[in-house]
Sequence to fold (679 residues):
Amino acid sequence: MELEKIKGVGPKILKHLNSIGIYTIEDAITYFPRDYEDRNNIKPVVEMKDGEMISFIGETSIIYGSRRTATGKTITKILFKSEIGYLTGVWFNQPYIKNTFKVGESIYLFGRVSRKMGEIQIIEPQYEKDVDNVPKGIIPVYSTNKYLSQKVLRKIIAQALNYIDDEISECIPESIRKIYKLLDIKTTLTNIHFPKNMQFLNLCRRRIKFEELLTLQLGLFLIKKRLIQSNNAFGIPVCKEMKDFKESLLFELTGAQSKTIREILTDMKNSKPMNRLVQGDVGSGKTIVAVIALFNCARNGYQGAMMAPTEILAEQHFESFNSFLGKWGIRVGLITGSTLKSKKKEILDKLASGEIDIIIGTHALIQENVQFNNLSLVITDEQHRFGVRQRADLINKGHNPHVLVMTATPIPRTLALFLYGDMDISIINEMPKGRQKISTHFVKGTGRDKVYHSLNNEIQKGRQIYVVCPLVEESENLQVESAVETEKNLKEKYFMNYRVGLLHGRMNSREKDEVMHSFKAGNIDVLVSTTVIEVGVNVPNATVMIIENADRFGLAQLHQLRGRVGRGTHKSYCILISEAKNQVALDRMKIMTSTNDGFVIAEKDMEMRGTGEFFGVRQHGLPELKMADIVKDIDVLKETRDLAREIINKDYLSLTEYSLLMNSINKIFNEKAENITFN
Ligand code: ADP
Ligand code: MG
Fold:
């Protein structure tokens, strides 16, 4: 129903409502509060505790002037009084605020208490002068913008709720609501905006989370079911040369690698397409797993493709694949954005005719003109770097090929459960033998000199060093500048007798290649780089990773960078340099120095950043959750997962009782379903 039905909604307000995503009355009803204010908390001023949220009704007593602090802030104070005591309102950098108050005027305040040196303050409180009409009880707080006040939005939503009967229907069957003790939808929606009390609010929140997670997982199961039904023609047996191939390797596979390989080969035998995620911390040896899968594919006469997120990585894979597979007569090709036109044409022709067995590439692989003869295995490396669409595009170049996805970004178990609901997961949780723990140190700016001087020793032993330059905001240009500068500086100050190289995103791919080759060959001692080396790069002789302004990087990214060292048998170090003094930054550095476990780091990262921000969810093309949090609401997640599985297995969705639930799944997955691939 149109919003114009609501009193007070004219063209202007309508526009503002649209700007926060409210287009219909239904949208307004389901626009959930981001927080609540419990305005019931009124007490004598002396009893107010530091940090608590309180309501206060009184009058403006004294308007003090503003003053400037040593750090240049202005502080404006206003004294309010009532029969329960005096309270000082404090505002920062808003000197004009004093003009909005008049001595003697009655006032309602709501805000956070701060007790400072005997003074009881309320910091930048909300205020209302129409004291008699201040909303009481538990008040919703919405996400909004400066054009649409909380007050107006509250009024509109309160009115929208009058239309609830016409707008909203119950989609969870009564039988389920009974078993899981869920409130009905009307009670829930009314009380989610204006709750009677906090306990009841929790019941409402549970009902909404339950519905969100249930519909979402049902949708995922349905898509998955559809995928499984579409068999392909590629039951690929284990080739007879497999044993010889494994024995020809220069190292022995770890137990975890062997297990993963077994799982993959078993999947590939099946005519049902494989859909498997290989998750292994940086350096755990995922590449060889991909090599073996592709070897098996090629020996059986099929084509395989592997997509990597950067040219450097694609090049590196191309070389190592060639060295592993070339001697078996397997033809490997490479396509990246900078493959020369003539060369590209040749490769594309051979790919289409089947004269290339394995193709490695970047995003260039998903261009329209890339065609295969009989693509049957698709691998994406470092999957978190690709969007859902891109991966789907590559998969669609074959006819339901087997799909293998590799990631070093450790996805916390809870998130994996949700994202990969029914994708099979192999975990490589064991490092190759002989690896030594990377020791990580946090160094303040003042210690920089000492760090760089101490590197002489390491270089003399024949080892190599990475220096990663600070991210300068999001600007690539500035980042490049800082890398150029750092290189110059290091050369002049510390490494005049050594070979210093430079690598950044503004170099063309031939230049990048040359630098990488020469670093790999040991012809560069110190490589100054931007984050272009973040993922996948493998130079086992490099043993020191120095990260400047380490506080500017995310934890997951720091862990990835650190993973560039410790790849051989030599003792390796990661030095995090930072001038940051704030607690959050220090805490983050502490996490890095205290653990090498990517899973622990990912969990912490997610805790600190919140799940919404955590890489993945949006990128996977999944519908957004309005209220449920896949980490905090793990219990509901499990509950609904089991229920969803039962509903699908017993085919309940075809029952009339479930038809509204089915509608709501379709609505949520509308359009989106197409885009979701389970990798
Ligand atoms: P990642 O999992 O980060 O992709 P890589 O596949 O690049 O790791 O492997 C890291 C290094 O470990 C490579 O030099 C690789 O050759 C080596 N490696 C892989 N598996 C083993 C093993 N089982 N024993 C010894 N070295 C191994
Ligand atoms: Mg890798």
